[in-house]
Amino acid sequence: MSDRRIGVYICHCGGNISDYVDVEKVRRAVQDEPGVVVAKTAMFTCSDATQQEMVQDIEEQQLDGLVVASCSPKLHLFTFREVAKRAGLNPYQYTQVNVREQCSWTHTDDYAGATAKAIRLVRGGIARTRLTEPLQPIKIDTVPRVLVVGAGIAGMRAAVGLADLGLAVLLIEREPVVGGRVAAWGAMYPHGKNGRQLIARLNEEIKQRENITLFTCAELVEKSGSIGNFNIKIRVGGNSGQGQEIITARVGSIIVATGFDNYQPVAGEYGYGIDGVLTLAEYKELLDSTEGKLFRHGREIKDVVYVYCVGSRQQSGENPNRYCSRYCCNAAVHASIEAVDKNPGLHQYHLFRDMRTYGKYELLYNQAREKGAVFLRFDHQEPPVVEKMADGKLMVKVRDLLTYSEQIDIAADVVVLVTGMVPRDNGSLVDVLKLPLGQDKFFNEIHPKLRPVETVVDGVFICGACQGPKNSSESVASALSAVTQSASILKKGFVELEPLIAQVDPEVCRWCGECTSACPYGAIEQVQYQGRAVARVNEAVCKGCGGCAPLCPAGAIDLKGYTDEQMKSMIDAFLKEIV
Amino acid sequence: MAGTTKEGKGFVPKILAFSTNNISDPGIDLAGSSHMHYPPSVMVVSMPCTSGIKPGWILHAVEKGFDGIFIAADGEECAYLPDCSERASNIVKNAQALLQQNGYEPERIKMSAICSVCAEPFTNQIKAFYQIIQKMGPARKG
Ligand code: SF4
Ligand code: SF4
Ligand code: SF4
Questions:
Q1: Domain spans, chain A
Q2: How far apart, in whole angstroms, are the C-alpha atoms of residue A221 and residue A201?
Q3: Beta carbons of B36 and B128 less than 8 angstroms apart
Q4: I need a surface site. Which of A186, A501, A553, B38 has the fewest CB within 10 A?
């Protein structure tokens, strides 16, 4: 019936499977399936001993297909692909059947039912495996050069890191100067170094490295190609005609470090618009430019009120920023220490919702309290109200949760709105790179814990505050992980991509162009085949989503690993009678 | 004779569920790891993305003996296609039309977005769908 030689291994997983599924019955039910030449059960298929046994079977029995019925493929797909590889079997002729998470564990209440289901699932896996063909990973030579978009603290540090690993760097910055937000900052915690100095030092480092090329007033305007080998176009000299120049280059990967915007309060938000109500950024400017006591319009500032969480952790309104901006509590507490150091007689009141001076910043918080700052906690449903008084001073009314919601009136010279971070408007960059945004409109990583700087666009990485609120040390840490991820691709000299991609049958295709518009990655191109135009999938660009396949009116497109034939024969196998 | 008819209480519908490798399949796995129960005549097949399901497979499955098709969709979380939900609902519409042309009820297909931690929603929905199909009776009459 089949000339395939398939080995099937059914796992007990200790008892995780065999306590709820009659694995021996499953083995008997599948051993005579067409193409099966070896059918065994094993206590732990992933153990070294069983892996060794499988390698031996594959070699001795000359197996050309492998099925392991065990846990979820999320756990061991790659383990068993490696087993296949070690034995000289093409890893894409291996199928993992999930009889643990999706069978034994979820039907612990039905031994007969679970056993029957396992038989069906394994038969399906065998049917699919019968129709596998050996596939080779797609190999692409990489260009040892990286494009870094954004020369703030994260982008600059990334450039230096890459250069030191021997990779060439194109560093581009939209503004006429480098340094981003940090360049504008004064003293920073913990060493009191100021932002300007930090950036100047990084700038020196960049200048010393011949393999970094920096362009200011530059934007990425085009990207094609794929991981390891992108073709990019950079527009230098602003977007108005004069002095404008387009530079083309090839790079192996792209690191996006475009940073954040400061939240801009709307008029009337906590009195914003009244003279004396400042954002945190405006207040820091005032602090950084003053020696000694603070003055405004010639009048000494004696009382300062800080209102926290402005623009962060919003619960209502249109598109609320629900996230915590995480740096602002620290920045405000730090600013208030600076302020009281300049004028020890200053009275400062911090109106907060929750104080999030995490980690070492907790010491700052204590320091602020020791220096006399008063902390009052408000309920976000009853936020402080800021009004202008007749004498020109400001009046802040707040109910303090820490003293049983007592109403407290504070007269202030300055009210500082502790504003958070918002995503930048990166519209054109998003279009060029096709980067996904999260619900909060910051760039989105693939996995927040396991793949924190990678994006769904292979070879494009994100770092720093363009990905979500971060302080500068967190930004630099993520920049360096983007460096590592880039280098891990580019230092090897080639990348290997999964070959489970779409394919067009040129015999069936009658070039209607439907699939080209269906593919958001631009992976389908027109080629000539026996004198006719047909569609062809660019294997380096195709992501293997399969989205084009159902849309082809001629039925010419199949996704490898999920072909029509495979899916239908799996369905048939699921439904075979169980005796 | 209760034994000869597959309808009613004794009828055990077979349901084919399409899930996706990175989003709904982990949610269904989680249902298993949490020992949540649903009928074992539900079988799951996983793909890269919901938008890749061909309506023809659904018709094939129903013709060959599945009584219901559940699509555990990527929804908004799809990492491949920004308009995945829209594509998937078109696929469902086309598949429903295909079923209808061939004399099957379009209600035999149900789609719902299932995320990677949606263990309980999946279990509840698949159980509810199972009951609906049980009431409808087998797809292949006679
Ligand atoms: S292969 Fe998976 S199912 Fe088998 S013993 Fe290992 S963990 Fe358990
Ligand atoms: S949709 Fe199908 S027939 Fe049309 S061009 Fe693409 S592959 Fe060819
Ligand atoms: S499978 Fe997805 S990425 Fe590949 S060609 Fe089709 S739509 Fe494009």
A1: 6-136, 145-259+424-495, 264-420, 502-559
A2: 30
A3: no
A4: A553
Ligand 1 atom 4: the closest Cα is on which residue?
Answer: A13
A526 strand-pairing partners: A535
Which of A105, A500, A559 lies at the smallest CB-CB distance from B35? A105
Closest CA to B67 of B13, B21, B113, B132: B13
B16-63 per-position pLDDT tens digit? 999 999 889 989 999 999 999 999 999 999 999 999 999 999 999 999
Q: At A517, phi and psi to the nearest 5? A: -80, -20
In chain B, what residues touch A103 (CB-CB under 8 Å)? Answer: 32, 40
Quick check: A438 contacting B, CB < 8 Å? no
Domains A145-259+424-495 and A264-420 share a fold: yes
Class of domain A6-136: alpha beta
Kind and range of the H or E element at B92?
helix B84-101
pTM for this one?
Answer: 0.68
Assembly ipTM: 0.94
Q: Where are the beta strands (DSSP E) in A437-484?
A: 460-462
H-helix or E-strand spanning residue A398 = strand A394-400
The CATH class given to the A264-420 domain equals alpha beta
In CATH terms, the fold of domain A502-559 is: Alpha-Beta Plaits (3.30.70)
- Of A171, A37, A22, which Cα lies nearest the Cα of A103? A22
List A residues 528-567 in contact with B (Cβ-Cβ < 8 A).
543-547, 549-550, 555, 559, 562, 564, 567
The DSSP secondary structure of A30-81, one letter per residue, reads: HTTSTTEEEEEEES-TTSHHHHHHHHHHHHHTT-SEEEEEES-HHHHHHHHH
Q: Is the CB of A544 under 6 A from ligand 3?
A: yes
- Three-state secondary structure call for residue A428: helix
**For chain B, which domains are there?**
15-136 (3.40.50)
Q: What is the pLDDT of residue A10?
A: 98
Cα separation values, A418 from A80, A287, A309, Å: 53, 14, 6
> Residues, chain B, total?
142
